[in-house]
Amino acid sequence: MYGKGLKPLSIATVVALAAGLSLVFFYAPNDADQGFIQKIFYLHVPLAMVSLVGFIVGGIFAILHLRSEDSRWDAYSYVSIHISVIFGVAVLITGSIWAKASWGHWWVWDEPTLVSYLIVFLLYATYYPFRYAIEDRQRQARYASVFAITAGAFVPLNFLAVRLAESLVHPRVFATTGGGLPGSMMLTFLVSLTAMALLWVTLVKLELTAKSASGQVKRLRRALDAPPAGPRSRVAPEVS
Amino acid sequence: MSALLLGETPALPLDEAGKYVAGAYVVFMVLLVVYVAIMAIKLQRIERELRDLASFAEQRNNNDEDTSEGASNSGDSHPSEVAAVSFQGGANPPAADAERSTRAEFDV
Predict the structure, then answer these.
(1) Nearest CB to B35: which of A37, A203, A214?
(2) Which residues neighbour A191 within 8 Å (Cβ) at sequence distance 6 or greater?
(3) Which residues 73-92 on chain A approach chain B with CB closer than 8 angstroms?
(4) Are the C-beta atoms of residues A105 and A99 closer than 8 Å to each other?
(5) Confidence of residue A153 (pLDDT cuts 50, 70, 90)
(6) Confidence tier at A113 by pLDDT (50, 70, 90)
(7) Which residues are CB-neighbours of A43 under 8 A, at least 6 positions away?
(8) What are the structural domain ranges in chain A?
(9) Can you tell me the ipTM of this complex?
(10) Chain segment B62-85, per-residue pLDDT in tens
């Protein structure tokens, strides 16, 4: 039943993405300092925020899994992290493009925001081999949950550490003192953020639906006592 | 509404900046399309497996019916023959069965 509500959610996502893009290119003014390049902000920052929140959500699902021993929570945790890692790839690529356009370099190693995000991304990139290395499904789910909780706790700490670091290189548009976004830019940003959040939820639901369908097929195969179709995935958890 | 939006449209620069902005948004769209393509492949695999299972179940049902008919006629069929159904045996189902399975696939 994971597919329930997927259609209206998908439609809402497409509408929100279209609205976000329209606002970015037809409504939000060009930034006084960066000019047209700043349009990447409406893509890069919402992606980064949603991916970081997604990692934390994955940790929360992992807590629920350890508390209840219900494998569904493990699947939720896995899928949340999976989609957030994909978002993370987009964050790193769009960030690099923005860095090249603004600073003239694809990557700046002494910028805490970039390096800290890369650390978080690489941490979660190890989630897959870590999970894949364990054969027993129950142990795999337990260990992956412990990993997701630990890494999930690291994400806000990492964010705080970056905020405390004093750097003027990376733009601080949500500064507590001075600056900030004007109304039209803030509206555009909020719509883009909503669109990215909806996209994340839709993709998580889609992935869960696919896993559920795959799990049901395997269940049916077992019930019919039919021979297996192919090699079984050791990475992805099954959803029934 | 669209006239209002277009009235507010800043000139789209096609210089260096425009190239980078376009690059960033294209990367995002490409990632999205690749993900959707992967999901489509997964869906196709699930569909194929379901089709295999449906034909397996139909074959088994047909064999069950044949065996019970044979048993009632002659009374000498062995139960192990029922279990000896081969999965994806290669035998084409009769036309009526094929039509029935197509109807079941598309829920018509």
Answers:
(1) A203
(2) A16, A19, A20, A23
(3) 86, 89-90
(4) yes
(5) very high
(6) confident
(7) A24, A94, A192, B24, B25, B28
(8) 42-168+180-214
(9) 0.83
(10) 887 777 776 666 544 444 443 333
Give the closest residue to A194 by CA, choosing from A7, A5, A67, A12: A12
pLDDT, position B5: 47
State residue A236's pLDDT score.
63
Q: Is B41 on the interface with A (CB under 8 A)?
A: no
DSSP for B20-57?
HHHHHHHHHHHHHHHHHHHHHHHHHHHHHHHHHHHHHH
Query: Looking up tokens 């497409």, which residue turns up?
Result: A14
> Residue A31: phi, psi to the nearest 5?
-70, 140
Tokens of A102: 């603004």
Residues of B in contact with A221 (CB under 8 A): 49, 53
- In chain A, which residues have their Cβ closer than 8 Å to the Cβ of B84? none
Q: Could B56 and A36 be called an inter-chain contact, meaning their C-beta atoms sit closer than 8 Å? A: no
Cross-strand pairs, A35: A31
CB pairs under 8 A between A and B: 86
Q: What average pLDDT score do residues A217-240 get? A: 70
The reported pTM is 0.78
Residues sharing a CB contact under 8 Å with residue A199, sequence separation 6 or more, in sequence order: A13, A16, A17, A50, B32
Question: A235: buried, middle or exposed (CB in 10 Å: 19+, 13-18, 0-12)?
Answer: middle
Contact A221 B49 (CB under 8 A): yes
B107 Rama class: left (phi>0) / alpha (psi -120 to 50) / beta = left
**Taking a C-beta distance cutoff of 8 angstroms, is the pair A214, A238 a contact?**
yes
pLDDT digits (tens, 9 = 90+) for A61-106: 999 999 998 889 999 999 999 999 999 999 999 999 999 988 888 9
- Which of B4, B5, B20, B35 to probe by mutation at the A interface, max A CB count within 10 Å? B20
List, for chain B, all residue ranges whose pLDDT scores fall below the cut of 70: 1-15, 70-108
